[in-house]
Design a protein that fits this description.
Number of strands: 11
Oligomer: single chain
Helix content: 55-70%
Structural class: alpha/beta
Strand content: 5-15%
Shape: globular
Strand order of the largest sheet: 4-3-5-2-6-1-7-8-9
Low-confidence stretches: 602-622, 761-767, 829-847, 863-869
Mean pLDDT: 78
Number of helices: 30
Radius of gyration: 34 Å
Distance between the termini: 22 Å
Length: 869
């Protein structure tokens, strides 16, 4: 981090101190006391954000090697507990400090942050809601009405305990749910009861006055705050609440105590010294500290609390290191983490900008056969499904940024760098058995890496494969992390500081409105404008909701029914033209009319080498062709092979009709929105409108304006249309188990006019010949109808998907429409007695405090100017 950047951070901190000091000395009516308290709280949040380290979150499914990856990255593989099962059960913060060259990597201090009483209560409700959702999703015959709106920490545990005895651990076997059904909710129920028992034991450790405090730990005890052990395995019978002696507030947190109150631990913080010659961590972000956050793995049993903790801490994480297992790199777990972040207001672009992807256990991915020459990454992906899946996952999570993908083999890295490592006996046996395989596979991947770099040495994935084969990918990953922290992590931290400052600016602005001689008129103007804005937004919402309904097949709008019918007619004609264009239909028809038969080869081409000099051999073993050179039709399998190509052509035509319909929709909707907003311009660019929203939101209205702009134009719909249109223009191959259901004929049926060599021909007087002609024409129509059904369904799917997207966007944006009660609260009723002037009751003048702060607000901290930039 440059001195200039650090100066800016110091500027934010100094400004927070000034605003807090002047707010604490200002006076005013009781109605505005909460606003002033909010402002003071925001100054503390800004100050804490200035002092906070740049954070790197390590996330992924359980047993994906996150803890071992972090330890190996720092040069001490056993830094955190590692096992073959889910091991880490709390968030671990590893704060890095630069040690002298040659010194060992070591933990110099440890501390634990306990959850506050409010956090424990919120976490319990989170788990309770998960139980209710699981019951609803699985249709279990379980009554959860008593659990809805219930807070066990606040209201007591009796209700939940009775519910558990009734459904989860029934006291009477008759009427009990099958064991396989109850497993879905027993893990979460056991989690809640463990929180109950931990609260009984913790006593004053979670008292509000001790909320979230950081407590020192002995270096021999911190592992107990991380290791899950067998505590998550639910008992087979109801766990009776055992009596416990509550702990006093200043109890020493020994290993035994940590085990007893494990569900109440927020995070463990380790201060780790890393020698400069191993990894110069002091240069990652300059004078600011860098902190790795090792998150518990998702998809583990009984880990709803982990989801809750991750959601809270991931919001402010600057760099997100997503680990995926190289041999099964599915994105389900990773996308769950990203969904947690998206739910807290971080856009997809911001998330993609924050993400690095690490394919761990690269040694478990079986290498393909060694290439005979130079190859590209794309060629390797086409020929090797495992590598293709890994690359695709990395592309999806990083927003198609292969330079943010790393590959690692940690066992190979430990050996290559000669790192000291003493795992437990079980893990040591697994690693020892696998070590020879690792060496062999890494040697094979080294050859593949050489072939990749020979074609393009700058390709990021080629370099990643080579790095993994050389030293397990550790040095390349360190470089990747350092670059991202320097280029993006610091910038993301500054963005967070701007958001805190924007909230402060809005609060000061609101206080200033209520503290000046013109505040009454200003308040009235703001309220009136917000009510007008609300009416306009609701009208625009109706335009979009009605427009989404028109996109659906079966719409009640007669004009749009006609538009859809026209497109279906055009699609029908195009499909028929495409299917009929195959010359084999006509030539097979001519052959059956002329000779009454089509010769069937006596053996497959792959079983017999045709002698081109032997006329009889060619005639009896080679499929016949007509006079125009087209292959004659003897078996429905020939049509099945052509079916996929016909469907692809028809899908492209469906894409053209999709473009036609959506162009009509965009034009019609744009005009309708224009009439609502009285013109094509952005209504939120008006200064008065921006000021009105700034009065309503803690961030100055910037985030709300971003959402509400979806109601003023349809460019966001156009982008979605373009993506769907591109997918229709380049349809995926038609393969897999669905093909037999889509193909309208029997898959491999020999046709009646196909005859073996030497079989008598059907004469022209034979009525079978006429039936052949009718059957051939009927088959052509059946193939046409089958192709049309697929193309028509894909068109319908695209339209319905677009309509659903519009409705989902409307549902989300609707929450941002200013509510009447929120608008009315802008001008407190009790402030009318003093809104007319600057002098407060008692003669204290405060109007100048807020105006002076706004006048002196540093230009480089002005949120509105940052937004304009």
């Amino acid at each position: 981090m440059s001195h200039t950047t650090q100066d800016r951070i110091d500027g934010y901190r100094r400004w927070a101190e000034r605003v807090r000091l002047q707010t604490q000395t200002a006076t005013g009516p009781a109605e505005l006391l909460d606003l002033r308290k909010d402002l003071v709280a925001q100054t503390y949040e800004l100050e804490n954000a200035c002092l906070a380290p740049v954070t790197i979150g390590v996330v992924g499914e359980y047993s994906a090697g996150k803890s071992l990856l972090l330890g190996t990255l720092l040069g001490r593989p056993e830094l955190l507990p590692v096992s073959t099962e889910a091991t880490t059960g709390n968030v671990t913060a590893v704060r890095l400090g630069a040690g002298p060259p040659g010194s060992p990597v070591e933990v110099t201090s440890a501390s634990v942050s306990l959850l506050s009483a409010a956090q424990v209560s919120a976490g319990a409700v989170f788990i309770l809601n998960k139980i209710c959702n699981t019951v609803a999703e699985t249709d279990l015959p379980v009554d959860v009405s008593t659990l809805r709106g219930y807070h066990p920490v606040r209201d007591g545990w009796t209700t939940f305990e009775k519910w558990c005895r009734r459904y989860v651990w029934p006291e009477h076997p008759e009427g009990a749910l099958p064991e396989t059904s109850v497993l879905a909710i027993r893990d979460s129920a056991w989690e809640l009861l463990r929180i109950r028992d931990a609260l009984d034991r913790a006593g004053e450790l979670v008292h509000p006055t001790n909320a979230g405090a950081s407590r020192p730990l002995h270096l021999d005890a911190y592992a107990e705050g991380l290791t899950i052990g067998g505590a998550r395995r639910p008992p087979s019978s109801y766990p009776v609440r055992a009596p416990a002696i509550p702990l006093p507030a200043h109890t020493e947190l020994t290993a035994t105590v940590l085990r007893e109150i494990f569900p109440l631990l927020g995070r463990i913080t380790l201060q780790v010294s890393v020698p400069a010659d191993r990894w110069p961590v002091d240069r990652l972000a300059g004078v600011q500290e860098v902190e790795f956050l090792d998150f518990p793995g998702l998809n583990a049993r009984g880990a709803a609390r982990d989801d809750f903790l991750s959601a809270a801490l991931l919001r402010d994480t600057h760099t997100i290191l997503i680990t995926v297992r190289s041999e099964r790199p599915g994105t389900e777990v990773a996308t769950r983490f990203l969904a947690l972040l998206a739910g807290h207001g971080r856009s997809k672009a911001e998330l993609a900008d924050s993400v690095l992807v690490v394919g761990t256990m690269f040694d478990l991915l079986t290498p393909p056969a060694a290439p005979t020459g130079a190859v590209t990454v794309d060629q390797l992906a086409r020929t090797d499904p495992g590598f293709r899946d890994l690359a695709r996952t990395g592309y999806e999570l990083t927003g198609r940024r292969p330079d943010r993908i790393a590959l690692t083999s940690l066992l190979h890295a430990i050996d290559a760098h000669r790192m000291p490592y003493r795992p437990d006996r079980e893990l040591a046996g697994v690693l020892a058995a696998h070590r020879a395989v690792v060496q062999q596979r890494m040697a094979a991947w080294r050859g593949i890496g050489d072939a990749l770099t020979a074609r393009d040495a700058t390709a990021p994935l080629a370099r990643a494969v080579t790095a993994a084969a050389e030293d397990g990918g550790v040095e390349a990953l360190r470089t990747l992390v350092a670059r991202h922290v320097t280029e993006h992590g610091v910038r993301l931290k500054l963005d967070a500081l701007r958001r805190h400052t924007a909230t402060m600016h809005q609060l000061v602005t609101t206080l200033g409105w209520h503290d000046t001689s013109t505040s009454r008129q200003a308040g009235d103007d703001v309220v009136n404008d917000l009510f007008r804005l609300r009416d306009e937004l609701l009208a625009a919402e109706q335009v979009l909701v009605g427009g989404a309904a028109k996109l659906r097949p079966g719409t009640a709008d007669p004009a749009w029914r006609q538009h859809l019918d026209d497109s279906l007619d055009l699609l029908r004609v195009s499909v028929a033209r495409t299917v009929f264009a195959w010359q084999g239909w006509d030539e097979t028809l001519d052959a059956t009319l002329h000779t009454g038969r089509v010769m069937v080869p006596t053996s497959a081409a792959g079983e017999h080498v045709v002698d081109e000099d032997d006329e009889e051999d060619r005639r009896t073993h080679t499929p016949q062709t007509g006079g125009g050179g087209a292959e004659l039709l003897t078996n429905t399998a020939q049509l099945r092979l052509r079916f996929a190509g016909l469907v692809a052509d028809a899908t492209r035509e469906a894409g053209r009709q999709f473009n036609r319909l959506t162009a009509l929709w965009v034009d019609e909707t744009t005009k309708a929105l224009g009439s609502v907003w009285n013109g094509p311009g952005d209504p939120f660019d008006e200064p008065a409108r921006a000021a009105a929203l700034a009065a309503l939101d803690p961030d100055g209205g910037a985030n709300r304006r971003t959402w509400l702009r979806s109601y003023t134009q349809v460019q966001w719909v156009v982008r979605r249309i373009r993506r769907r249109s591109d997918a229709l223009a380049q349809p995926a191959p038609l393969d897999g188990p669905d093909v037999p259901d889509l193909f309208p004929l029997l898959p491999a049926q020999q046709l009646p006019w196909a005859t073996a060599p030497g079989q008598a021909a059907v004469t022209s007087q034979d009525e079978g010949q006429e039936q052949h002609v009718v059957r051939l024409l009927r088959m052509r129509q059946e193939v046409t109808d089958g192709v049309l059904r697929v193309a028509q369904q894909r068109l319908f799917d695209a339209l319905v998907d677009l309509a659903d997207r519009v409705r989902r966007e409307v549902t989300e944006v609707h929450q941002e429409i200013p509510k009447a009660v929120s608008i009315e609260r802008l001008v407190p009723d009790g402030s009318a007695a003093w809104l007319g002037g600057n002098t407060q009751p008692g003669g204290t003048t405060t109007g100048s405090v807020w105006q002076r702060l706004l006048r002196d607000w540093p230009t480089d901290l002005d949120s509105s100017q940052e937004e304009n930039k």
